[in-house]
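Small integral membrane protein 5
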Amino acid sequence: MSSEGFLKEVQDIGAKFLHKLQKLPSAEPVEIASFFVVLLFIGDWTLLPGLEFSHTCCFI
């Protein structure tokens, strides 16, 4: 994949995410809950490796 194609993909994902955030105040409670569960899952998978690495480096 070229860098232009990757940049286009990232922009498309960002636009979809922004669109979801803008629709969130008028969304149904189930949709709001599922959106936050997905955000928590993504945050979990991005933060945990960094925390594990810093914990391992500090105690060696």
